[in-house]
């Protein structure tokens, strides 16, 4: 293999008068090396293997055979994510070429598209469901955070590497590339630290570093990246007209407890309501380009917009009204102060999903409302 960017190498080599085959790619220690120096082939190969691993996992562990979302996500993180991030210490600084904001906000690369598909499968949602809503309900952060943290941990180790070793010599070359303004792990980490307001770690002469210290430094970076991504995602949800309910009930990225409390039908109904993936008039009208103020409820003659609040808290449709009264009375027995809240605050309290007993009480009613519209 001859490393070049022109793809027009015409050299030939002999070994004992036997021509040596020239190749464009070569797999070494599980990673493809390309003659152009690009790691795209390696990343694509790892993603392909991860998809096969997930397909095997999905056959035995999915929401339709009774598996809880928390168990599925744990298995995904344990069995699939390590495949995607394998060797990221080497390739991440070359694969992520843009600013940190772009890296964290980019859900259109192949890794994050696959990640999003897994989230939708785990929740039992369709492929047309909003991406950010599904990821938010499961408390998922970008895979890029994992790869950046792996790279940072490796960077710290390189800083303390002795120059008389092979890896130490490679570190000297990386530093030279950085000084000449070429892409390297040192430049990559320097940019990440600057954008997360973290001090850049530098080795002190004669001072060794242990695994515990490396782990603590990496955790600080991880929390900085998570905090930055939380800001980005919250802003995206607030700007989305479709996710108005989610913007008013969810303020941080976390796995929602209701996903472990309910059966599949009830869980799907609440998820659909929270991320606006239902068939209520407010969303059907959006698809049909009907003005928002004309998306009337079809179950009553009140001429009010058929949104989530109207359907669950106001609509006088007989079946809804009976189940609503029963559910709200049960919540009041559980929380006496609940009856004193204004109707809008009752609605927000229920859909914040912070009270497991409350959500178990209203889940059958919500499932009935959502499935009735289908």
N→C terminal distance? 59 Å
What is the number of strand segments? 4
Helices and strands, in N-to-C order? EEEEHHHHHHHHHHHHHHHHHHH
Strand adjacency order, main sheet? 1-2
Number of helices: 19
Q: In the residues, how many domains can be counted?
A: 3
The assigned structural class equals mainly alpha
Strand content: under 5%
Sheet with most strands: 2 strands, antiparallel
Mean pLDDT: 88
Low-confidence stretches: none
Characterize the structure shown.
59% of the residues lie in helices and 3% in strands. By secondary structure, it is mostly helical. It has three domains: 37 residues, no CATH class; 212 residues, no CATH class; 116 residues, no CATH class. The strands form two sheets. It has a two-stranded antiparallel ribbon. It has a two-stranded antiparallel sheet with strand order 3-4. Strand 1 and strand 2 form a beta hairpin. The radius of gyration is 26 Å and the shape is elongated. The mean pLDDT is 88.
Summarize this entry quickly.
The protein is mostly helical. It folds into 3 domains: 1-37, no CATH class; 39-250, no CATH class; 258-373, no CATH class. It has helices at residues 40-60, 69-79, 81-84, 88-95, 100-105, 110-123, 131-137, 143-159, 166-179, 185-195, 211-239, 244-249, 258-261, 264-274, 281-287, 308-314, 318-334, 343-351, 356-373; strands at 14-15, 18-19, 25-28, 31-34.
Helices and strands, with pairings:
Elements: E1 14-15, E2 18-19, E3 25-28, E4 31-34, H1 40-60, H2 69-79, H3 81-84, H4 88-95, H5 100-105, H6 110-123, H7 131-137, H8 143-159, H9 166-179, H10 185-195, H11 211-239, H12 244-249, H13 258-261, H14 264-274, H15 281-287, H16 308-314, H17 318-334, H18 343-351, H19 356-373
Antiparallel strand pairs: 1-2, 3-4
Helix pairs in contact: 1-6, 4-8, 4-10, 6-7, 8-10, 8-11, 14-19, 17-19
């Amino acid at each position: 293999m001859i490393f070049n960017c022109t793809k027009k190498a015409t050299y030939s080599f002999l070994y004992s008068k036997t021509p040596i085959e020239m190749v464009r790619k070569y797999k070494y220690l599980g990673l493809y090396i390309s003659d152009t120096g690009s790691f795209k082939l390696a990343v694509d190969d790892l993603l392909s293997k991860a998809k096969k691993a997930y397909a095997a996992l999905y056959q035995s562990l999915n929401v339709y055979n009774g598996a809880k979302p928390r168990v599925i996500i744990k298995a995904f993180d344990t069995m699939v994510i390590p495949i995607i991030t394998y060797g990221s210490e080497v390739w991440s600084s070359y694969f992520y070429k843009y600013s940190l904001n772009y890296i964290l906000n980019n859900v259109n690369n192949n890794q994050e598209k696959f990640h999003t598909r897994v989230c939708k499968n785990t929740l039992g949602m369709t492929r047309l469901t909003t991406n950010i809503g599904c990821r938010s309900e499961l408390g998922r952060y970008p895979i890029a955070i994992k790869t950046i943290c792996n790279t940072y941990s490796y960077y710290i180790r390189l800083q303390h590497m002795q120059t008389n070793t092979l890896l130490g010599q490679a570190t000297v070359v990386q530093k030279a590339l950085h000084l000449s303004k070429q892409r390297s792990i040192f430049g990559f980490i320097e940019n990440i630290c600057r954008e997360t307001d973290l001090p850049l770690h530098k080795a002190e002469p004669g001072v060794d570093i242990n695994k515990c210290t490396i782990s603590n430094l990496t955790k600080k970076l991880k929390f900085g990246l998570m905090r930055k991504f939380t800001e980005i995602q919250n802003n995206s949800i607030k700007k989305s007209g479709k996710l108005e309910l989610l913007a008013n009930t969810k303020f941080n990225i976390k796995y929602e407890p209701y996903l472990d409390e309910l059966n599949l039908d009830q869980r799907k109904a609440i998820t659909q309501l929270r991320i606006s993936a239902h068939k209520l008039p407010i969303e059907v009208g959006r698809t049909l380009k009907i003005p928002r103020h004309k998306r009337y409820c079809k179950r009553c003659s009140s001429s009010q917009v058929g949104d989530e609040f109207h359907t669950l808290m106001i609509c006088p449709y007989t079946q809804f009204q009976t189940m609503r009264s029963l559910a709200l009375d049960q919540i009041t027995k559980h929380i006496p102060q609940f009856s004193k809240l204004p109707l809008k605050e009752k609605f927000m309290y229920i859909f914040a999903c912070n009270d497991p007993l409350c959500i178990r009480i209203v889940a059958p009613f919500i499932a009935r409302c959502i499935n009735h519209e289908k």
